[in-house]
């Protein structure tokens, strides 16, 4: 009986460790995509890229911001254009009939 209890405990510890790893991975993935951006629109200057605009106006995952900007504005961008940035990772920019909208969860 003693060995059965030990095996049961070992199994429980193994399952709990596995669950903890899954939770840690999931939380890590969510945090890895987090960002916040300035709500001020950016006027495109010569030499600007969407990456540089995101890098200068946002904190956190610049790639996630840039991916959203490329999806909305395309690449390359034009000098003089106004670029709006998503507020955070729960918000996505969309363009409808030439107007930019931000939709947040």
Describe this protein with a few key phrases:
105 residues, alpha+beta, 3 helices, 49% helix, 21% strand
Can you describe what's shown?
By secondary structure, the chain is an alpha+beta fold. 49% of the residues lie in helices and 21% in strands. The protein has one domain. The protein is built from three helices and six strands. The strands form three sheets. The protein has a two-stranded antiparallel ribbon. The protein has a two-stranded antiparallel sheet with strand order 2-4. It has a two-stranded antiparallel ribbon with strand order 5-6. Strand 5 and strand 6 form a beta hairpin. Helix 2 crosses helix 3. About 5% of the residues have low confidence.
Concise account of the structure shown:
With 105 residues, the chain is α+β, with helices and mostly antiparallel strands.
Class by helix and strand content? alpha+beta
The largest sheet, given as strand count, sense and whether it forms a barrel, is: 2 strands, antiparallel
Number of strands: 6
Number of domains: 1
Radius of gyration: 22 Å
Shape: elongated
Beta percentage is 15-25%
- Give the SSE string: HEEHEHEEE
Strand order of the largest sheet: 1-3
Mean pLDDT across every amino acid position? 83
